[in-house]
Amino acid sequence: MKQIYLICAAGISTSMMVEKMKAAAKEQGFECSIQAVGIPMAESIVPNADCILLGPQIRFEKENIQSIAGDVPLDVIDMKDYGRMNGAAVIQKAKAMMGITE
Amino acid sequence: MNLLKNNKLEEFLDAKLIPLGNKVSSQRHLKAIRDGMVAATPLALLGGMTLIVTSPPVNLDIMKPTNFIFSFLITWKKWAMEYGMQIELLQRASMGLMALFICMVIAHSLSKSYKMDPIGPMIISAVCFMIASAPSNLGVMSADITANMTGEEVLANQAALIPTGFLGAEGIFAAIIVALLTTEITRILNEKNLMIRMPDSVPAPVKASFASIIPMIVNAVGIFLISLLVQKTSDGLLIPELIKTLFSPLVMLVDSPFGIILISIITQLLWIVGLHGSSIVSGVVGAFELGNLTANAEMVTQGMMPEYIYTEPFRAFFMILGGAGATMALNILMLRSRAKQLKTLGKLAIVPSMFNINEPLIFGTPLVLNPTLAIPFILAQTVNGILTYLIMYFDIIGKTFTLVPWTTPAPIGAALSTMDVKAFIWVIFLVALDLIIWYPFFKSYEKQVIREEKAGE
Predict the structure, then answer these.
(1) In angstroms, what separates the C-alpha of A43 from chain B's closest C-alpha?
(2) Closest Cα of chain B to A9: distance in Å?
(3) Cβ pair B380, B441 in contact under 8 A
(4) CATH at A67
(5) Range of the structural domain that residue A75 is part of
(6) Is A51 a catalytic residue?
(7) Which of B292, B253, B257, B279 is nearest to B385 (CA)?
(8) Is B22 within 8 Å of A82 when comparing Cβ atoms?
(9) Considering the domain boundaries, does residue A102 fall inside one?
(10) Is there a domain that residue A33 lies in?
(11) Is the CB of residue A50 less than 8 Å away from at least one CB of chain B?
(12) Given this model, what pLDDT does residue B450 score?
């Protein structure tokens, strides 16, 4: 099963996003595990991650986290999708990053 | 939409500010200091909870047991007066030794960033910090001595007494400097190959313990000599006292209306381009916020009034009501908005707002690069800060001295962190004031949104 991680400063606002993404994934019948963590945890999640998404407010951390993450696909969530908590759009993005096409 | 119009500006600001944020967040010394402060949070929370239990908001001279709540409070106060000292052990062993733990975590984080084995530098930094900040002495607790004891019996009570005055808030700056300095010295010694090397057949942990022998001696003896020198030349000042004196102008600047305005504006300018302002700024001011709060807590345990105004709970519960930018007021206005999208967003965001989480508002409204709403986004929390500074300065409401998690709803967090019920009412008043500040700007933005919604239909 694909493991998707969301990272923000303390892992709180991303955890709201996670709930919306889970609902969207279920609707699409896409089985995956989605979790939110804070920046200090970034290092420890990398070995299990298939996809890492950053909250737009910590996009300045992208370089640092990419350097730990190596080949794991990593990107920043679009600001509008984040503000509207658009779970479906972010799941779509995660799928595309992991090369999953229907 | 505003976002589209501002694409050029956004690109320009991103190009300038992302490297800045990246630099602050990845600069290894700043990152180590931030890690130290993060690690100290549970210590401050335990200490804060202890102080909440032992500091009931009661003045026995004024309050009489006229009703159930008052009798409860009076019983609580009397209980706290009797057992408070004992219970506050939980505070003394956590918050009270905070600088020591901060020192160790900073050394750990910094040495890891150099890919060194962190155990050695961590222990070295702790030893050096104790040498600099808590010069222990052989002594006997005079309370344990009675008149008819023999000399031998007195000696049996002898112990090394460790003064703890600089192991808490007073020692935070010293902890930072000792941790960074000793770890750098250890790293340089390692690079110059000045360490005892063992053959490859020796197990790794044994090798590591030998490797830190020379850095340990160099650092500990070095700090000891510096400490003696400082004491000789300054009439007995310890290193942390000296460092504290050097830092005091900065501490005073941060704990002033000017400092509060400056911090507030910088944080909000970062948020306006959609960057996590407080997480970037706390790399620099986090040590002050935590240091001031811990110093206040220590004053309260000693029966004194807290002294510092600007602390972490001050920012969290008196300035940024509803999240960065004091957006609780904005959220309330949205709930009654005639613009469909603002009303929908308001409903989605109101529950997180109560817990001071407002990313949906920041990115959904959006407040990012929104020229119409930029002014209240900066102004409201700054006004909250200045007014609260004034009423705390004149002791109309109490100052903060306990750490409550920043996700606590603001009025409750404000009351718990000051143990002053008046703070609860004050925060409600501030939200009402914020409504007035946000209102005209919100109305103007709402008009734009309604126009766009109509055009889209």
Answers:
(1) 12
(2) 7
(3) no
(4) 3.40.50.2300
(5) 2-97
(6) no
(7) B257
(8) no
(9) no
(10) yes
(11) no
(12) 92
